[in-house]
Amino acid sequence: MIRVVLAEDQAMVRGAFAQLLDLQPDVAVVGTAGDGDEALAAVALHRPDVLLTDIEMPGKSGLDVAQELVRRGDGTRVLIITTFARSGYLRRAMDAGVAGYVLKDAPIAELVSALRRVHAGERVVAPELAMAAWDSADPLTPRERELLREVTTGASNADIAARLHLAEGTVRNYLSTAMAKLGAKNRSEAANTARDRGWL
């Protein structure tokens, strides 16, 4: 039996996936979560074989959760299921130790197959994403990504500087470099471009 924790912030989608997975003779959904923090708690409580998680959730993202599980030395394998066919997300997922990455619009049979393969120790990637991942390298440094994420919240340079304990000039320099790398006219355009490509 494959023990699964399911993390998805939309209650209706979460319920539908749980019901569909419970119909499989070899799959048991032992816990569900509506955000990243709940997902980590559910994994700690239920010790599932696989965490099936969305990427974009309140609080910690699915990628944040995957990285935290690796940091903790947790043996739970992570299978990402998302609507976002962004190569940047896939590369970050692989870097975070994710075992699989599939799209929500795939047939349920493909999801179940991916779940079984991940449980068996394989790595599974939606074919439509596999090639694109190699064509779109993320040019941003971790610090540039961190600052652009702050920009997406509407924070000013002064706010970002205070929050991250940096000089305002340092923030400006990082954002200018990111803008140049992305060919953006301003910091908002740079943040939007990076988010659209799955780099944030």
Automatic annotation (TrEMBL):
Domain Response regulatory: 3-119
Keywords associated with the record: DNA-binding, Phosphoprotein
Lineage: superkingdom: Bacteria
Modified residues (4-aspartylphosphate): D54
Residue ranges occupied by any HTH luxR-type domain in the UniProt entry: 133-198
One function term, GO molecular function aspect: DNA binding
A Pfam cross-reference name: Response_reg
InterPro entries per UniProt: CheY-like_superfamily, Sig_transdc_resp-reg_C-effctor, Sig_transdc_resp-reg_receiver, Tscrpt_reg_LuxR_C, WalR-like
GO biological process, one term: regulation of DNA-templated transcription
Protein name per its UniProtKB record: Two-component system, NarL family, response regulator DesR
Species the sequence originates in: Lentzea fradiae
